[in-house]
Recover the amino acids of this structure.
């Protein structure tokens, strides 16, 4: 039996996608794939003032990174301007729309009067039935909205929604620069692409009656609407593209795994289901829009972080290394060749929440590492010199490179310098061996550094930073 369900993801390239956009893309993809349908990608790039190609390219990059692959070609609204204009001319000819020559000053006066009267600002239909047509005077095209009756539609999540046509004005469908507006373009595109289900944010509910009226005027088939409850931050404010905290670029740059983000969003706003999927294809079997709550969702960053920690430890090692390399390339990180990289990753993995944590740890195994100048001042003293020199002389004669011998000499070092606090001795070791004050087990790090690199680093630090204490 053929299933004709077609969904779409239609972002505007006016900023980086945020976590709410990703949820819409995921749900649209899952609903289509669950029903053996199609998932269409449409880039709504007609807002020339805010359009930026880097955002458009990044949309594709993010969807591929997440594994949300689209069907058919990518549709760009900027390539379809002539189609929109032809339909607007048809609407003008058939009295479904009209040209409005009202100046900005007049429109502002109308707005001020409405606000003064305490009513919702809307156009007064001055040009509606006058069939005006002036040469060389800028105009917009307005949709001839019905003046009476109600628009009624059933939303899968919010159920029956009613709008009064009287509350809607004759909204603009073509700007004075000749570019059609959002509410008009989406109707033409949804019809052309045979979209059956429109999944989008709750903040679009007010656009829906406008779009339905255009659908009706053009005798197009109206799709079903699913408006997702908005996502709020911990302060219960709506997330947006402007806030980098919720920007998908931040998640990628910090080394989250795609499966962690997708798994978290799958159950956001639903009953608390403690189940973790291994891939996106598994998700479509349990996906159910009807189980979504109407209430807004609170985004909990800590939950995503702990979920990412779980996946780092449970995904296949090949998958982990793939995103490890991906992270290094994406962030232009130079990492020396490490013949014991697998051993290093295995050591730090249980302590890591993000791929960034793993990579940052691996960086301490580079031949040359960064030493904070303020910390150098803190540890640049005779104690550091004596401790490093003692350890260097003991380790250089070590024949078997084994953790038990390293442990043995570290204990001897602690005993020799027992007039210092153990915690302080360890801080000295941590800093000059890794460049950081706090790291996991320093004995194990020495082992992973290997003898040659360890001796090089100690000698380098003594000569470069502790030369004043060399006798």
């Amino acid at each position: 039996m053929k299933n004709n369900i077609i969904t779409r993801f239609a972002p505007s390239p006016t900023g980086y996608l945020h976590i709410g956009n990703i949820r819409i893309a995921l749900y649209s993809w899952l609903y289509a794939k669950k029903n053996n349908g199609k998932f269409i990608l449409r880039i709504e790039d007609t807002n020339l003032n805010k359009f930026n190609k880097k955002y458009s390219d990044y949309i594709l990059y993010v969807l591929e990174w997440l594994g949300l692959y689209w069907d058919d070609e990518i549709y760009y609204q900027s390539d379809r301007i002539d189609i929109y204009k032809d339909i607007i001319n048809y609407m003008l000819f058939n009295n479904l729309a009209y040209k409005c020559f009202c100046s900005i000053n007049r429109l502002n006066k109308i707005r001020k009067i409405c606000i003064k009267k305490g009513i919702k600002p809307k156009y007064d239909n001055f040009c509606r039935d006058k069939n005006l047509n002036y040469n060389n005077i800028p105009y917009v095209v307005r949709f001839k909205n019905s003046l009476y009756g109600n628009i009624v539609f059933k939303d899968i999540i919010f159920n029956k929604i009613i709008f009064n046509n009287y509350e809607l004005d004759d909204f603009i469908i073509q700007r004075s620069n000749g570019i059609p507006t959002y509410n008009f373009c989406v109707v033409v595109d949804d019809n052309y692409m045979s979209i059956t289900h429109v999944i989008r944010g709750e903040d679009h509910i007010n656009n829906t009656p406008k779009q339905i009226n255009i659908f009706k005027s053009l005798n197009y088939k109206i799709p079903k609407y699913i408006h997702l409850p908005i996502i709020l931050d911990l302060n219960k404010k709506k997330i947006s593209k402007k806030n980098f905290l919720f920007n998908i670029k931040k998640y990628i740059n910090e080394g989250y795994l795609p499966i962690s983000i997708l798994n978290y969003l799958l159950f956001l706003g639903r009953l608390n289901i403690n189940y973790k999927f291994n891939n996106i294809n598994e998700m479509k079997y349990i996906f159910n829009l009807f189980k979504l709550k109407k209430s807004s969702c609170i985004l909990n960053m800590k939950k995503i972080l702990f979920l990412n920690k779980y996946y780092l430890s449970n995904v296949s090692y090949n998958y982990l290394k793939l995103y490890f390399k991906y992270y290094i390339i994406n962030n232009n990180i130079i990492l020396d060749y490490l013949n014991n990289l697998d051993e290093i990753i295995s050591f730090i993995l249980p302590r890591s929440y993000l791929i960034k944590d793993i990579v940052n740890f691996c960086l301490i195994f580079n031949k040359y590492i960064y030493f904070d100048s303020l910390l150098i001042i803190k540890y640049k003293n005779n104690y550091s010199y004596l401790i490093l020199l003692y350890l260097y002389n003991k380790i250089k004669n070590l024949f078997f490179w084994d953790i038990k011998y390293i442990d043995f000499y570290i204990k001897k070092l602690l005993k020799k310098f027992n007039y210092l606090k153990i915690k302080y001795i360890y801080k000295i070791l941590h800093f000059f061996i890794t460049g950081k004050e706090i790291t996991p087990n320093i004995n194990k790090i020495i082992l992973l550094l290997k003898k040659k690199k360890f001796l090089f680093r100690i000698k380098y630090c003594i000569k470069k930073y502790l030369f004043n204490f060399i006798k």
Remarks:
- The two ends are 88 Å apart (CA to CA).
- The longest strand covers residues 38-43.
- DSSP finds 19 helices and twelve strands in the chain.
